[in-house]
Design goal:
By secondary structure, this protein is an alpha/beta fold. The chain has helices spanning 16-29, 44-55, 72-78, 89-98, 103-118, 126-149; strands at residues 2-7, 35-42, 63-67, 81-88.
């Protein structure tokens, strides 16, 4: 798995070294081999506009994910899946305070959440959300365990 990170917003100061190290740990887990994702860190205003344009919801959200459509024969032959994950840093900051986590850990959780959506998980129903939440927490704990081991 390969993840490309870009911090587009400039309002909130982030420790990108911590985020990049966490992404490297996430890539080491190899749960999603042959997948590549771009992750864009943006503001609430920017994500609100995207949410309105694509989902007809006129409010900011924490994370959005978009599949990049490739011809089916390429997916079958090369087994590559690409997608874009868009994260609101403002929401991550607010939620990090609520859940007593660092903003970087909250962003990592959103990255994992976006990856799960792009690899077939949904959270539209209570049951789906429960399954997805357990899966993302399991992955997050693996990344943190690897991070703490060095």
């Amino acid at each position: 798995m390969k993840i490309k990170l870009q911090n587009i917003q400039k309002k909130i100061c982030l420790n990108q070294k911590i985020i990049n190290e966490a992404i490297k740990k996430l890539e080491k887990i190899k749960l999603f081999k042959n997948y590549s994702f771009s992750v864009s860190l943006i503001s609430n205003n920017q994500i609100k506009k995207i949410n309105k344009d694509y989902h007809k919801k006129n409010y900011p959200t924490d994370v959005l994910s978009f599949e990049i459509n490739q011809p089916e024969f390429i997916k079958k032959k090369v087994k590559v899946f690409d997608g874009d994950i868009i994260i609101s840093v403002d929401t991550a900051k607010d939620n990090s305070k609520i859940y007593n986590k660092s903003i970087e850990e909250e962003i990592l959780l959103y990255i994992i959440h976006g990856i799960l959506h792009l690899t077939g998980f949904n959270d539209k129903t209570r049951k789906e959300a429960e399954i997805m939440h357990k899966k993302q927490e399991k992955i997050l704990n693996k990344v943190i365990k690897i991070k703490n081991q060095g």
